[in-house]
Design brief:
2 domains; globular
Length: 322
């Protein structure tokens, strides 16, 4: 019977190619078929790679549930933040790790993890990670039982997301500038004359009234190209807490002034007279105050309208590689 040196055996085990499932959203904003094939070919040099394309809304979640059951080491969400969100909802609470390759218009999750924004650079980064495999746990936010990775909202931003998603060509061509234009147009048309009313109760404190609520799980709510947009301090992937703000009024000059302060840093937006800021909380309940259902969004994906939204944090529930 052959005797195997334990050091050699350990090295052989360490050298085993990690099983990787690459989930591709073929209609993501920045997805190019030729580039996708080159990326997959490169990854096959260091990983045991399987590839599948999403075919419908929610498909990535189903694929990730199957990947976790099949004990894949890692899932790569190759698409935008919507694809990442679905993947996170399928992998939360499992041992299968998640990472991302930027294929969308903003790729906030990838930016927050420090993954390069150029897909070629991001692929090279992922290849190097094969030699220093260190998955780590991160928090996820929750909105009415659904996980989100970096941000969610009820009100204005969800209305903007719905408007932007209905014009994919403009979204792809103008990116964050189209979001800004849509925000201003949506605010002036729906939130100035007769804005919806809501209340938010944070960690059991007395409720605060407003017209729109924004919650972040990551350090930043979103990005304007490469510029981070933090709304308030207190959140973060490993903080065990959420953070957020409420737009308390709807005056014509509020959106441009709030936007300017958001691009200048969390400390400035929290001092805006039309903002109530909440840093470092565990739970919040947002309710319609006038019986009008309010639009919801998670990670830049419009998910419908509800009269109530319950936000919570799920500490360390997702493993990531970045």
């Amino acid at each position: 019977m052959a005797v195997v040196d334990p050091v050699v055996a350990a090295l052989q085990g360490k050298g085993r190619a990690k099983r990787m499932l690459v989930i591709v959203n073929p209609i993501a904003t920045a997805m190019k078929e030729r580039l996708r094939h080159l990326v997959v070919y490169a990854l096959q040099g260091r990983y045991d790679v399987d590839v599948v394309e999403t075919q419908r809304r929610g498909h990535a979640t189903e694929l990730c549930l199957q990947a976790a059951a099949a004990q894949y080491d890692i899932v790569v969400a190759f698409g935008g933040d919507g694809t990442v969100n679905e993947a996170a909802n399928g992998l939360a609470g499992t041992q299968t790790a998640l990472t991302a390759l930027p294929g969308g218009s903003n790729n906030v999750f990838a930016k927050e993890l420090g993954i390069p924004t150029d897909v070629v650079d991001a692929t090279e980064h992922l290849l190097r990670l094969a030699d220093r495999w260190e998955p780590r746990p991160v928090d996820l936010g929750m909105l009415n039982g659904r996980y989100f990775t970096f941000a969610a909202g009820m009100g204005l931003d969800a209305s903007v997301v719905k408007r932007v998603d209905s014009h994919p060509a403009l979204k792809a061509r103008f990116g964050p500038f189209y979001f800004v234009e849509s925000a201003v147009a949506t605010f002036l048309s729906r939130y100035v004359v007769n804005p919806p009313k809501l209340t938010i109760e944070v960690d059991g404190a007395p409720p605060v009234s407003g017209v729109s609520a924004f919650v972040q799980n990551s350090a930043n709510y979103t990005y304007f190209k490469s510029r981070a947009v933090p709304l308030v301090e207190g959140g973060g992937f490993e903080s065990g807490a959420l953070a957020g703000v409420v737009l308390t009024r709807a005056r014509p000059y509020d959106v441009p002034t709030v936007t300017f302060r958001a691009l200048s840093g969390a400390a400035r937006i929290a001092k805006h007279r039309g903002i109530a800021a909440f840093g470092g909380f565990a739970e919040a309940v947002v309710k319609s105050a006038d019986a009008r259902p309010l639009p919801l969004q998670v990670d830049g994906d419009y998910i419908g309208e509800e009269l109530e939204a319950r936000f919570a944090v799920a500490p360390g529930v997702l493993r990531v590689v970045a």
